[in-house]
């Protein structure tokens, strides 16, 4: 899978050409590299042992090594199983081909490796000898080797995003460019893969849990200070609210720009009519793309220097027929979200961006909005866009009916926060709510911009009412449900970008602008008062205010 022109690279070269050293340099910035050695174990050949020792000495001490040896089929499995946060260096395909010689399955092994390279989500660099520039070998074994390696080079080169030929230590880019490779490396976000452990341990999330409130005095002081900044224009406009918000959440009248940002992408599907018109496995593909560093969300996260964590929520049952979740599933999802927020803050994160993807998320949010505010579902449920780019009114009607039937089903039942989560919302909203509560408990702000985030905010009012005061809405994306929920929550959108890139992407697109406002507010000096004047609102010493009457 290609990520912005860079994910996999094939480095070709002759004997002593410097190809291995060049391949190693491509992964010099990778925090974790697995060196995959393909050569067969030598039988007491001192010269070959010296070559291997020289390779080992040149590698970084933190690299790990995998030995393929006489099991060449293992190479494709290693490439296919590599994780998005890993980097693999395979050196080289010549040794791998040697182990394949004489096997009837050699061609299938080449095809399997090419397929694994094509779908690889890790950073992958393969080294291979260029066998097409010399004379045809004189022996049958030599010709078989050259034919196999030559065919493998062609297949792997077609599968890779970049191909480099190294001659006399000088690289020549045959596919891709050095600039493309380096830009792609910068655009790949840090993908956080470990999940929190001991989810069942920790705080009891009961109704009306006490959470801290932002510092209103710091916010007021920041607002007053903005009026004194030495600028040529009228000020920051609507972005002054970003400064006030940051000041309140940081308890600092001169807030700092957010440095460590974590994107939590909650992936959860909803069964039944809620997902009418959705492509099968679309959310799974989106989540896999994000884990691999691809897609709009990962691209924006990388450009913002944010880490990205994909979170799988339990699938919600069809709400028109019965509860979306069990009570135990609700409790587990809330705890999981809380721990996700805690783990992020413990890792140094000072801003969380809540993102979501899943079939039927907007229907669950519409049902939550209807249950809490009395909104009519058709008025808050956005149109459905089909795979062909056309509006699918039939799917929209099925979605409306699912939410309507769910609300009718619970019309005489309890409407507490856990009831709403279990009956209507589902696992993605429950995890998002846990994130909001956990972030508020650790005095950490959250950017929300989509149905799942605002639905979690609505339910939070009866679990931890302070949580919404730690939320900022950069943009509502003109989504009808998000607009109404934002009004109920008292969250005024800052911008109107009219983006439709998925929940969380608008917040990331706006993040550089928000950071710029904080940078200006924290670094610009205040205006100097002209000599001989007093600050506004004061009188010269020894005088009385006019009209005092003596």
Put the structure in a nutshell.
This protein has helices at residues 19-26, 46-58, 73-81, 93-100, 106-118, 140-159, 178-187, 216-226, 240-250, 282-291, 295-303, 327-346, 361-373, 377-380, 393-409, 417-425, 427-441, 451-460, 480-489, 505-523; strands at 8-13, 33-37, 64-67, 87-91, 123-129, 162-167, 170-175, 190-191, 261-267, 307-312, 351-357, 446-447, 471-472. With 550 residues, the protein is an alpha/beta fold.
Give the topology, please.
Layout: E1 8-13, H1 19-26, E2 33-37, H2 46-58, E3 64-67, H3 73-81, E4 87-91, H4 93-100, H5 106-118, E5 123-129, H6 140-159, E6 162-167, E7 170-175, H7 178-187, E8 190-191, H8 216-226, H9 240-250, E9 261-267, H10 282-291, H11 295-303, E10 307-312, H12 327-346, E11 351-357, H13 361-373, H14 377-380, H15 393-409, H16 417-425, H17 427-441, E12 446-447, H18 451-460, E13 471-472, H19 480-489, H20 505-523
Q: Could you describe the 3D structure shown?
A:
This protein is α/β, with parallel strands linked by helices. The protein has 20 helices and 13 strands. It has helices at residues 19-26, 46-58, 73-81, 93-100, 106-118, 140-159, 178-187, 216-226, 240-250, 282-291, 295-303, 327-346, 361-373, 377-380, 393-409, 417-425, 427-441, 451-460, 480-489, 505-523; strands at residues 8-13, 33-37, 64-67, 87-91, 123-129, 162-167, 170-175, 190-191, 261-267, 307-312, 351-357, 446-447, 471-472. The protein has a seven-stranded mixed beta sheet, sandwiched between helices. A six-stranded parallel beta sheet has the order 8-10-9-11-12-13, with helices on both faces. The longest helix has 20 residues, at 140-159. It is globular, with a radius of gyration of 29 Å. The termini are far apart.
